[in-house]
Design goal:
EC number: 6.2.1.1
Radius of gyration: 24 Å
Helix content: 25-40%
InterPro entries: Ac_CoA_lig (IPR011904), ACAS_N (IPR032387), AMP-bd_C (IPR025110), AMP-bd_C_sf (IPR045851), AMP-binding_CS (IPR020845), AMP-dep_synth/lig_dom (IPR000873), ANL_N_sf (IPR042099)
GO molecular function, one term: acetate-CoA ligase activity
Keywords: ATP-binding, Ligase, Nucleotide-binding
CATH superfamily of the largest domain: ANL, N-terminal domain
CATH class of the largest domain: Alpha Beta
Strand order of the largest sheet: 12-11-8-6-7-14-15-23
CATH topology of the largest domain: Rossmann fold
Oligomer: single chain
Bound molecules: 5'-O-[(S)-ethoxy(hydroxy)phosphoryl]adenosine
Organism: Haloquadratum walsbyi (strain DSM 16790 / HBSQ001)
Number of strands: 30
Structural class: alpha/beta
Length: 659
């Protein structure tokens, strides 16, 4: 670091709030603070402002139908098509030559799709899907890396009204099979492989293993040839087709976009919850698309001429909402990158930003922490002056990382939006609006216009400023999940039971996050209060990891908790009791790690596997996870007097600290 840097850091370390630069405010999409009042005074009609960003085939007559709470319906009698909104209308509006997707492969090869190109490919793939037998409302699973065929396939599904279910490519074969089984999905779109840190990965092998465990017939799979000569030479079976050959047969085909009711399902996205079974979050067409377009416009400040880059993977909700649907609905250029940020060098992201003159960049705190560790020489060697706005999502960002991002990437001239939201919320919920709010590093900000969120204690009463409580949302919003796929009961249990009052018919959504609020109404998110971990911004259920570990030969019982981790935010700590006759050795440790990788994926890999004779349990037999977390974090241990076996705690502690 130079002396200037040291001086700058010292100055910023003291600063607790930052105002958006005038140059940003002058051009921002939303600059009038009155928007908050306008939305709350005209709620729910205010949401026509979001719906007006879309083109409707037939207009809706009611904004919100709350006759069957909490099964809310938005714009319910309107019809529209999401692919038409993300593609066709931009072509019709004279923007056929504007770039829709800028893609860069890990090796630096690039592909550019104008809106006309995207229109052609989406139509041709829609025709392909129809030929394969896909009908409206059939769930099509995608298990694909970050290649343009993924958004093309998603939009082709949307065009014919077939909901997609995208499974993150880093998930295991088992995870794929579980999701296909749960959704009864008979179609799979996948790829032969992709590149990671220079190596070609065999993705088809995993897809094949997943397919072998699907319980129903799979009508057809489509395989994109990503690797070419680097491929692994797998033979395709009778129901497996090569993407290019199918597309060649449909060159020039056009498929009329089907009119979907606003409440028809657009997609399913599986996410982790408290139990071992992932939850199929159902999002519908009108409300979701209106909400993502609106938040992309008001929070990410996107405009049609922008080049925008969200470095998430489309396999997660962030990629669905803010690589594909939100930006494309607005007619923006969205950038996609296949690989990792440190290949071939640690300046890859800054190289991409410079090369494409990216205007708005959206990433995760875990990435920012890695950039900080690597050092400023990487961003410093690039011209990042095209940037206008920066965003973060996925986990809390600590003030030091925020300030680093602000200074070394934004050069003090870009506001930062720290956006809190979830798979279930569809889009951003708590964040400053970049042209209005003062930013406070570490605090996401106030609830967005039209979002009625509060922080309450266990009795549901508002907590005082500065006190920790639970985040709740008291009114519905258009982007919200509609239910858990084929499981209305679990939908109510998971999200509504805790704080709703059936006597007064008051319905309160509980996202399972802890938070606190300051005197200005800014919310600081403290993290999950359920058994969900946030590892590098990826959401993982402790129960899912535990069941993968217990499935390993030789394991009797396991408890998984999150421990603090400098880069990942949280890391997986697995406490394991072996079965009699099994040695607590390196072989077993490796099988456990492999069990987790096979059951979920490498992202869930335990940081530490700690063998123990017993787990700390209360007299009623409940594992005291709090203690296991404290041990993982090397913290002073809290009360152990309610334990049945307090002596085990010291033993475990000694093992973790290596004493
Ligand atoms: C966490 C990702 C603090 C939170 C969009 C939430 C955050 C979970 C933030 C959802 C943020 C997301 N500050 N925590 N800005 N954004 N989270 O479903 O715990 O993968 O419940 O959606 O991430 O993760 P999910």
């Amino acid at each position: 670091m130079t002396d200037d840097d040291v001086e700058l850091e010292a100055r910023l370390a003291e600063q607790e709030s930052f105002d958006p630069p005038a140059s940003f405010v002058d051009q921002a999409n939303v600059t009038d603070e009155a928007i908050y009042d306008e939305f709350s005074e005209n709620w729910p009609e205010c949401w026509t402002r979001a719906a007006d960003l879309l083109s409707w085939d037939s207009e809706y007559s009611t904004v919100l139908d709350d006759s069957d709470e909490p099964f809310y319906e938005w714009f319910a009698d309107g019809d529209l098509n999401a692919a038409y909104n993300c593609v066709d209308r931009h072509v019709e509006d004279g923007n056929k030559n504007r770039v829709a997707i800028k893609w860069e492969g890990e090796h630096g090869n690039t592909r550019t799709y104008t809106y006309q190109d995207l229109y052609r490919e989406v139509n041709e793939f829609a025709a392909t899907l129809q030929e394969l037998g896909v009908k409206e409302n059939d769930v099509v699973t995608m298990y694909m890396p970050m290649i343009p065929e993924l958004p093309i396939a998603m939009l082709a599904c949307a065009r014919i009204g077939a909901p997609h279910s995208v499974v993150f490519a880093g998930f295991s074969a088992d995870a794929l099979a579980t999701r296909m089984n749960s959704a009864d999905s008979e179609y799979l779109i996948t790829a032969d492989g992709y590149y990671r840190r220079g190596d070609a990965l065999d993705h088809f092998q995993k897809a094949q293993e997943g397919l072998d465990n699907v319980e129903h017939d799979v009508a057809a799979s489509v395989v994109v040839d990503r690797l070419g000569d680097d491929g692994f030479g797998h033979e395709l079976s009778e129901t497996q087709y090569d993407w290019d050959s199918l597309m060649d047969a449909h060159r020039g085909d056009r498929v009329a976009p089907v009119e979907r009711n606003a409440e028809d399902m657009l997609f399913l996205m599986y996410t982790s919850g408290t139990t071992g079974e992932p939850k199929g979050v159902k999002h519908t067409t009108g409300g979701y698309l209106a909400y993502t377009a609106w938040t992309a416009q008001s929070v990410l400040d996107l405009e049609p001429g922008d080049t925008y880059w969200c470095s998430a993977d489309i396999g997660w909700i962030t990629g669905h909402s803010y690589i594909v649907y939100g930006p494309l609905a607005l007619g923006t250029t969205t950038v996609m990158y296949e690989g990792t940020p440190d290949y071939p060098e640690r300046d890859r992201l800054w190289d991409i930003i410079e090369k494409y003159a990216v205007d708005v960049f959206y990433t995760a705190p875990t990435a920012i922490r890695a950039f900080m560790k690597w050092g400023t020489e990487y961003p410093d060697s690039h011209d990042l002056s095209s940037l206008r706005l920066l965003g973060t999502v996925g986990e809390p960002i600590n003030p030091r990382a925020w300030k680093w991002y602000y200074t070394h990437i934004g050069h003090e001239s870009c506001p930062i939006v720290d956006t809190w939201w979830q798979t279930e919320t569809g889009g951003m919920m708590v964040t400053t609006l970049p042209g209005i709010g003062t930013m406070k590093p570490g605090s996401a900000g106030p609830p967005s216009p039209g979002i009625d969120a509060t922080i309450v204690d266990t009795a549901g009463e508002d907590v005082d400023a500065g006190r920790a409580g639970y985040l709740t949302v008291n009114k519905p919003w258009p982007g919200m999940l509609r239910t858990l796929y084929q499981n209305d009961e679990r939908f109510i249990d998971e999200y509504w039971e805790e704080y709703s009052d059936p006597d007064t018919d008051e319905w309160v959504y509980f996202p399972e996050d802890g938070a606190k609020i300051d005197d200005d109404g800014y919310m600081t998110i403290l993290g999950r209060v359920d058994d969900v971990l946030n590892v590098s911004g990826h959401r993982l259920g402790t129960m899912e990891i535990e069941s993968a570990i217990v499935g390993v030969n030789g394991v009797a019982e396991a408890a998984v908790v999150g421990g603090d981790h400098d880069l990942k935010g949280e890391a997986v700590y697995a406490y394991v009791i072996t079965e009699d006759g099994y040695a607590e050795d390196e072989d077993l440790r490796e099988s456990i790690i492999k069990g987790v990788e096979d059951g979920i994926g490498p992202i869930a890999r335990p940081e530490q596997v700690i063998f123990t004779e017993e787990l700390p349990k209360t007299r009623s037999g409940k594992i005291m996870r709090r203690l296991l977390e404290e041990i993982a974090n090397g913290e002073e241990l809290g009360d152990t007097t309610t334990l049945r076996n307090p002596e085990i705690v010291d033993e475990i502690e000694a093992k973790v600290s290596g004493d």
